[in-house]
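queue> pop job 88
queue> type: inverse folding (structure -> sequence)
queue> payload:
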């Protein structure tokens, strides 16, 4: 339950600290006094988004802090999962800075809004007039039935499998799309791959082929140059070898006169040896160089093939062609792989479908078992609320698809009076009837949930008199097992509360401020009397207020 609420610098509230009690509490106040502001501030600590418009003074930060007593609600697991410190008296604080940034804390540990929203689901149900409209929504109707049927674990298991199913279906569709795209280009890709594979390309071979081509294409020139070189080296009269050897012989004559001459002689001997070796190599090359038109043609053909492939694939190197060949090969091979993967995925989908079907049958069965009990309890409660002839017809039928909460379609039909046909709830129920039905639903749900606190924001819209009195009694009965707040304009309901809080406005200088205070017994009599007769409180209104309170 919520034990206290502290608000600073929020909307029309400068500073507010209020303690709350167990049981049934009433909040009243004139229209525009600030009841919605109070709920707005509470919404901040429950994880709703906020902006700078929430700040009363734009230069200071807004702080909303709420204390919750949660020792009896087995929420330790949530704190462990979210790495938070567990305290039986848990404090949630929300801050909005003048910069517009927002911060949230649980027991002084920073949390994000999603964590705050997740935690709030176990703390408070704030029932607004908007939620009464949700009663006509199929998803909300399913929530009611599933709560009565205790389907939470089954649906959690179903949702987990449904996520796996949708992921597998998405993967299968993606692979089918890929396969379709590949198949469209399959023949062309195979042609390109085969063409490159037939070329028998090797990394770095282009440079070697180009050199071979140049050599084979210039055999005569190379032969002539080699012959000239050998002649220059071996000429008997002026050849390099003959002259170099004579040079060496003369130098050797001086080698005995100094170490320097000896060194020069040795170096010359090295030159002679090197030149001898060069000449021998040239002879060898000369013997090996000969015209080979057939080899020249083969080299030329391979070069032209590579040049054609480079142009076709718009690349500059053989390495890039090889990369394209590998890519094409993977596309050709991927057809087989994709088909195998799709077969495996289809099997996975079928297995998950079988599991989903089993869980769906269990969910549907427990829903059908819960419906008679739900309708019986609703009819009983609504009879107390002035609807003695109300009837519900809740029909469940099999759906052809996997929905978010099972494989059921739901038809929630309603008849308020004898002799009238059943109709869809949102089409045939009036606003006052919807309010009473929603209260009946909440009353039933409290028997199946351990939610600490519920706040009814003007759930009495459209009712008055004895019906309002009965609504108050039902909320009073609910408060025996949980903390209940009712924001109301009806004195019949206000009189049923254990604690009574009043929201009001005060004007200080140029500033309007909203306040909230706990009424004393005497103040409460005057507040209810004012709700009965307006500002001019009569003796009869006071007596009526006392009678209601007694």
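queue> result:
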């Amino acid at each position: 339950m919520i034990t206290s609420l502290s608000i600073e610098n929020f909307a029309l509230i400068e500073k507010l600290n209020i303690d709350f009690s167990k049981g049934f509490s009433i909040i009243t106040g004139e229209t525009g006094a600030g009841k919605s502001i109070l709920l707005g501030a509470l919404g901040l600590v429950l994880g709703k988004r906020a902006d700078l418009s929430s700040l009363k003074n734009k230069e200071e930060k807004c702080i909303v802090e709420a204390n919750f007593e949660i020792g009896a609600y087995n929420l330790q697991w949530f704190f462990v999962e979210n790495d938070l410190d567990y305290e039986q008296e848990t404090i949630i604080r929300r801050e909005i800075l003048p910069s517009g940034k927002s911060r949230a804390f649980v027991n002084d540990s920073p949390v994000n809004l999603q964590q705050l929203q997740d935690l709030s689901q176990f703390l408070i149900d704030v029932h607004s007039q908007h939620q009464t409209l949700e009663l006509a929504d199929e998803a909300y109707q399913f929530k009611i039935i599933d709560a009565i049927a205790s389907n939470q674990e089954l649906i959690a298991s179903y949702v987990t499998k449904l996520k796996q199913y949708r992921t597998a279906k998405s993967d299968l569709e993606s692979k089918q799309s890929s396969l379709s795209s590949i198949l469209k280009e399959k023949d062309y890709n195979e042609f390109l791959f085969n063409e490159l594979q037939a070329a028998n390309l090797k990394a770095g071979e282009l440079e070697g082929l180009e050199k071979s081509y140049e050599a084979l294409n210039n055999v005569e020139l190379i032969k002539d140059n080699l012959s000239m070189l050998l002649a220059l080296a071996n000429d008997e009269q002026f050849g390099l070898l003959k002259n170099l050897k004579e040079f060496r012989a003369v130098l050797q004559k001086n080698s005995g006169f100094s170490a320097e001459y000896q060194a020069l002689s040795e170096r010359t001997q090295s030159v002679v040896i090197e030149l001898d070796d060069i000449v021998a190599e040239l002879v060898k090359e000369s013997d090996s160089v000969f015209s080979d038109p057939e080899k020249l043609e083969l080299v030329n053909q391979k070069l032209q093939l590579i040049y054609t492939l480079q142009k076709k694939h718009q690349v500059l190197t053989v390495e890039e062609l090889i990369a394209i060949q590998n890519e094409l090969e993977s596309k050709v091979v991927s057809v087989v792989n994709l088909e195998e993967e799709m077969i495996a995925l289809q099997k996975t989908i079928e297995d998950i479908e079988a599991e989903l079907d089993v869980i769906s049958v269990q969910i549907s069965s427990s829903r059908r078992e819960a419906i008679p009990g739900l309708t019986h309890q609703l009819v009983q409660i609504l009879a107390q609320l002035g609807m003695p002839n109300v009837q519900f017809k809740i029909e469940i039928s099999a759906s052809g698809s996997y929905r978010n909460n099972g494989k059921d379609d739901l038809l929630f039909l309603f008849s308020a009076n004898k002799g009238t046909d059943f109709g869809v709830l949102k089409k045939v129920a009036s606003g006052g009837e919807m309010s009473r039905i929603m209260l009946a639903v909440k009353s039933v749900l409290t028997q199946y949930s351990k939610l600490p606190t519920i706040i009814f924001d003007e759930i009495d819209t459209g009712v008055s008199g004895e019906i309002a009195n009965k609504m108050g009694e039902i909320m009073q009965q609910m408060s025996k097992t949980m903390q209940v707040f009712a924001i109301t304009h009806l004195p019949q309901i206000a009189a049923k509360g254990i604690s009574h809080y009043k929201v009001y406005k005060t004007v200080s200088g140029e500033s309007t401020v909203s306040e909230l205070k706990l009424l004393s017994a005497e103040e409460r009599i005057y507040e209810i009397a004012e709700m009965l007769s307006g500002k001019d409180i009569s003796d009869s209104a006071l007596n009526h207020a006392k009678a209601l309170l007694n």
